[in-house]
Amino acid sequence: MKINLKYFLVLSSLILLSSFNIHVAMAQSQTEMNEQAYQGFKKTDKELNDFYKQILAKYKDDKIFISKLQKAELAWIKYRDAELEAIYPAEDKSFYGSVYPMCANYFMTEITQQRIKELKLWIKGICEGDVCAGSRKWE
């Protein structure tokens, strides 16, 4: 079977871009793509904060848990920021070119989406009978 290399490259690029939830318009400038990525991150960050607030409200009577969750969230923010710095370690971010803001915001969006999945466990619950549920309530 002979595979058209051009078709393969285009298809591979589309798959890669879709994994970052990127909606690319063909005639966008880099500035517009940077802004679009930033807006995507802001939207995801708001979603994270909404889930966090829901957890705080749902577990408001459990002061020990709330204290530990707040500590965990601050640690996660430090981790997120440190991970970004590890990916892009140069002090002068212009070293990475004009795509840096876009790439950094895609990373921030992706890692924030992962954290949202983790926080959802306290809202939606864990399967009943999960002996490792800890503070996460059963469904």
Give an overview of the whole structure.
By secondary structure, this protein is mainly α. It has a domain at 30-124: Substrate Binding Domain Of Dnak, Chain:A, Domain 2 (Up-down Bundle). Helices cover 68% and strands 0% of the residues. It contains 4 helices and no strands. It has helices spanning 5-19, 30-58, 63-87, 100-124. The longest helix is centred in the N-terminal third of the chain and has 29 residues, at 30-58.
What would the CATH topology of one domain be? Answer: Substrate Binding Domain Of Dnak, Chain:A, Domain 2
From the N-terminal CA to the C-terminal CA, the straight-line distance is: 50 Å
Structural class determined from secondary elements:
mainly alpha
What is the second-level CATH architecture of one domain? Up-down Bundle
SSE pattern: HHHH
- Put simply, the count of helices is 4
Mean pLDDT: 86
Low-confidence parts, pLDDT < 50 over ≥5 residues?
A: none
* Major sheet attributes: none
Helix content: 55-70%
Fraction of residues in β-strands: under 5%
- Please provide the count of β strands: 0
**CATH class assignment of one domain:** Mainly Alpha
Shape: elongated
- Measured on Cα atoms, how large is the radius of gyration? 19 Å
